[in-house]
Amino acid sequence: MKDSNSDVSCFMCEQLGDKDVEEIKETEETPTEPFDLGEAVQPYGLSLTAEQLAQFDQYLALLQEWNQRLNLTRIIASRDVQIRHFLDGLTCATVTGDLNGQTMVDMGTGAGFPGLPLKILYPELTLTLVDSVTKKTHFLTAVVESLELSNVTILATRAEELGQILGHREAYDWAVARSVADMRVLAEYLLPLVRIGGNMLAQKGASAAAETTAASQAFEILGGGSPHITTIQLPENESPHYLVKIPKERPTPAKYPRHPGRPTKRPLE
C-alpha cells in the first residue's frame, strides 16, 4: 500500500546513481548498440527470464515517461539506466543471495533502486519501498501496478519515524540504501529496522572503506557486527563501487533512531 497523505521533506540525499555518480566514471565513448541486460547479469552469477527482461523494458519506459514531468533521475538514456540503475541494483544479489521468501526495506528508494530490480529478480521477495517524497511514491505505485508485482508496500515517510513504528522496527531480513548519506547516518536509519540475524546493506562509492571505519562505533551502539565490503565493477565504468554489509547481532537501543534530523546533524561517534 502507499501513504499518499504524507507530506514530508526528503530525509536523504539523492541516490548513488544520481549524485555519487562522479565516483563511477563513464568511458569516453558510449556504445550505441542495444544493451543486453540478460547477458550483463551473467558475470555476477545471475540470470533473467524473458518475462523478467520484459518487466525491465516496461520499467524503463515508465521511468522515461514519468521523468519528463517529475525529476526522478538525471540518468535517463536507455543504456545508462540499464547499467547504472538496473544492473547496479541487481549486483546487490551478489551479497544477499536468493531473496525469495525474505523481507527487505529499501530506504530512500527514489525511483525504486535497488529494491525494484531485486523484486523483479526475486518475485517472492516481500518488499517495502520508502521515500519521503510523495510524488516519487506515486511513480513507484504506477510501476508496481503496471508490472503486476505482489507483496510490495510503498510508504512516504522518514527513516527516523519508520524505525520507531511497531511492525517495521527490527522486522526485516534486509535494510538497504543507495545513498550518499554518511555511513554513520545510514546505520542509524537502517539497523533499527533489521531483525537480529538480518543485515544492513549500503551501496557506496570510493569513500566506502573510510566511512565504514569511521562508523565502527555507530555500528556497535546500534547492535551491528563487523562489516564486510564487496567490490563491484560495472561495465563501461572505470571506477568500482562497494557493497557494505553489516550484520545485526543485538537489539537496537529504544532511543534510536533519534528524532528527525538529529542523525544528520549529530552523527553517532
What's the SSE blueprint?
Layout: H1 16-19, H2 37-40, H3 50-66, H4 78-90, H5 93-96, E1 103-107, H6 115-121, E2 126-130, H7 134-146, E3 152-155, H8 159-162, E4 172-178, H9 183-190, E5 194-204, H10 208-214, H11 216-221, E6 228-232, E7 241-247, H12 262-265
Parallel strand pairs: 1-2, 1-4, 2-3, 4-5
Antiparallel strand pairs: 5-7, 6-7
Helix pairs in contact: 3-7, 4-6
What order do the strands of the largest sheet run in, or round the barrel if closed?
A: 3-2-1-4-5-7-6
Distance between the termini: 36 Å
Any idea what the shape is? Answer: globular
What oligomeric arrangement do these chains adopt?
Answer: single chain
Number of DSSP helices? 12
Notes on the protein architecture:
With 269 residues, this protein is an alpha/beta fold. 34% of the residues lie in helices and 16% in strands. Strands 3-2-1-4-5-7-6 form a 7-stranded mixed sheet, with helices on both faces. The longest helix is centred in the first third of the chain and has 17 residues, at 50-66. It is globular.
Descriptive terms for the model:
disordered N terminus; 34% helix; seven-stranded mixed beta sheet; single chain; 7 strands; globular; 16% strand; alpha/beta; 269 residues
